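Quarterly update from the structural biology core.
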Amino acid sequence: MSSLTSVKAALTTQAIETPSWAYGNSGTRFKVFAQQGVPRTAYEKLDDAARVHAHTGVTPTVALHIPWDRVDDYAALARHAENQGIRLGTVNSNTFQDDDYKLGSICHPDAAVRRKAVDHLLECVDVMDATGSRDLKLWFADGTNYPGQDDIRARQDRLAEALAEVYGRLGDDQRMLLEYKFFEPAFYSTDVPDWGTAYAHCLKLGPKAQVVVDTGHHAPGTNIEFIVASLLREDKLGGFDFNSRFYADDDLMAGAADPFQLFRIMYEVVRGGGFTPEVAFMLDQCHNIEAKIPAIIRSVMNVQEATAKALLVDRDALAAAQASGDVLAANAVLMDAYNTDVRPLLAEVRGELGLDADPMGAYHRSGWAEKITAARLGGQQAGWGA
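Predicted structure, tokenized:
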């Protein structure tokens, strides 16, 4: 078993990126629910992200979404982040909210639409250059709803061509993270529906193309930890979008629906050598009915707890049980770690970092919620544009 000292040391190195859009208004496909104090600008989103980092100590970066976070001066936005004690992180593209993309974006049958979509992706790389971002995260709503609607193989060719152009634009220290989703909004065929398709394209592109695993983008019963183990084995796991789902892509708080699954995933990350800066830990959530900032803090704490438990697994005992074929003993090793109450351990880690042992309580006592509710009156609240 790892010593508590080494576990604590590892936990101090963890970094979890928060998404700018999670601080804005969101909802279901039927309704977006507005809340008081929601940011109106990209700058105010960064202020909220900095507040999360101030209480958790492990959220030093915030992901941008273009065009939702489009500004005139990205260098100035980066300076604002640094002044708040955080940095700008992953740049996320959007090729799914324009009327031209009804039949797809980079896989669209019309070359003019494909050109428009690729130009947007190249714009996102320009934003990366201005902000110092390492990662470009790509998710495509492309696909078809009916058999015969389009040529499935031709769409894969278009996808490969577009990705290759964008890949060629990346700088030496920049990466492309390709996300997959098995359905929605395309219901008959999706152009990047699974990890195998994403992996195949990334493998062909080269070492700067990696797969990102969104924990909500899988069919019920999918063994996500197997996918994680496989991608780590192939050195193609670029990062995670952490969230929870009960049925489909619910984008609920990480660790809310199935904390045991999150633990199993994190164990494979630790076991496979993925607990490094090369594997980005990101949240991808929509806080529809709960307060934004506390929900993000809770999600961060859930990921921390799953990580701590994964680090506590007695890997020597587990290996011995596996080698001897002792099924019950092997399972018991994992369950012992999972059933450990790691909250006191994390409280110690926070204390040693000079943080309050209770991030949620510290936030509520800070008065930040009351401050932004009073200050952010008027203007247009941020949201994901539905």
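The longest strand covers residues 87-92.
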